[in-house]
Design brief:
The protein has helices at about 15-25, 45-55, 80-85, 105-115, 130-140, 170-175, 175-180, 195, 205-210, 215-235, 245-250, 300-310; strands spanning about 5-10, 30-35, 65, 120-125, 145-155, 190, 200, 240, 255-260, 265, 275-280, 290-295. It has a single domain (about 5-310), classed as Alpha-Beta Complex (Inosine-uridine Nucleoside N-ribohydrolase, Chain A). By secondary structure, the chain is α/β, with parallel strands linked by helices. Helix 1 links the parallel strand 1 (about 5-10) and strand 2. The structure holds beta-D-ribofuranose and calcium ion (CA).
């Protein structure tokens, strides 16, 4: 089978960086057509730069990187330097990338790619606020039916929120964009906090990256080391959740995850619960299902896959 074509939409972010590396370490299964950066964890000027740093680290300067939207659809940008550090990729020493940023806007790249490719050929993999994807759908409604699937990190049900008591960061930053995507009719696979909080990089798992003896392994160890200080202090957990790599891992080994096909609506109005993913986990409404909302992951299987693929780079 030829590799599955994907566009990664991202706001790196240490966990985004690991997710991109997981995809680039899996060329037999995944063909990364391009990476579109969006404002999220840090402003766009940094996320597009960080995406290029990651491609260079993997020696994949052939992957085109595009800058997309620099602000959410209807609100001002909320960032997460308190988690990711000032650069978004704090941890190891990093040089500025030398590979160029593409001139095309990220949204136009998404539109042009979907128009060029046959229907059901391209999967979108968003790991940040959904601004780029929603803007592309608004600007070019004809592309919506051409998307094969969207596999995204965002939202929560049992875990509720990590940026407010009610909302997960990616959805909170741009709930209007999330609403467009969740109502688009495209098949959706959602990796909420309920799953990602089970994919923890504990000390032995960080060590496994470091022991690879490669530059990529060292960088992943340094990033995850930095990233875990926040979650350990805040939640008393044994490590940091590798949120975004769950999306790519699903594309590689879907059997690692389990969930329910349910209705998920996005709260856009209430100031108290803005960005909440109202997930009908218990089927208490008759609203139509619009997402495969994951609830569990085989964490050891996930880390075995991750370390095996990162070691290839
Ligand atoms: C999500 O928010 C960001 O901080 C992470 O990169 C991840 O995409 C988790 O809530
Ligand atoms: Ca992210």
């Amino acid at each position: 089978m030829p590799p599955r074509k994907i566009i990664i939409d991202t706001d790196p972010g240490q966990d985004d960086a690991v997710a991109i590396l997981l995809a680039l370490g899996s060329p037999d299964e995944l063909e990364v057509l391009g990476i579109t950066a969006v404002a999220g964890n840090v402003p766009l000027a940094l996320t597009q730069k960080n995406a290029r740093i990651v491609c260079e680290l993997a020696d994949r300067t052939d992957i085109p990187v595009f800058a997309g939207c620099d602000a959410p659809l209807a609100h001002s940008l909320v960032t997460a330097e308190h988690v990711h550090g000032k650069t978004g990729l704090d941890g190891p020493q990093m040089d500025d990338p030398t590979m160029p940023l593409q001139e095309t806007h990220g949204v136009d790249f998404i539109i042009e790619t979907l128009r060029r490719e046959a229907a059901d050929n391209v999967t979108l993999v968003p790991m940040g606020p959904l601004t780029n994807i929603a803007t592309a759908f608004q600007k070019a409604p004809d592309i919506v039916e051409k998307v094969r699937e969207i596999v995204l990190m965002g939202g929560a049900y049992f875990e509720v929120g990590n940026i407010t008591p009610a909302a997960e960061f990616n959805i909170y930053v741009d709930p209007e964009a999330a609403e467009i995507v969740f109502k688009s009719g495209v098949p959706l696979v959602v990796m909420p906090l309920d799953v990602t909080h089970k994919a923890l990089v504990t000390a032995p798992r960080v060590d496994a990256f470091r022991k690879m003896g490669t530059r990529v392994g060292e960088m992943v160890a340094a990033w995850t080391d930095f990233f875990e200080r926040f979650d350990k202090a805040k939640y008393g957990s044994k490590g940091a959740p590798l949120h975004d790599p769950c999306t790519v891992a699903y594309l590689l080994q879907p059997e690692l995850f389990s969930g329910r096909t349910i209705n998920v609506e996005i709260e856009v109005k209430s100031p108290l619960t803005r960005g909440m993913t109202v997930a009908d986990w218990w089927y208490v409404t008759d609203r139509d299902a619009n997402a495969l909302f994951m609830g569990d992951v085989d964490a050891d299987g996930f880390f075995n896959l991750l370390t095996e693929r990162i070691a290839r780079l």
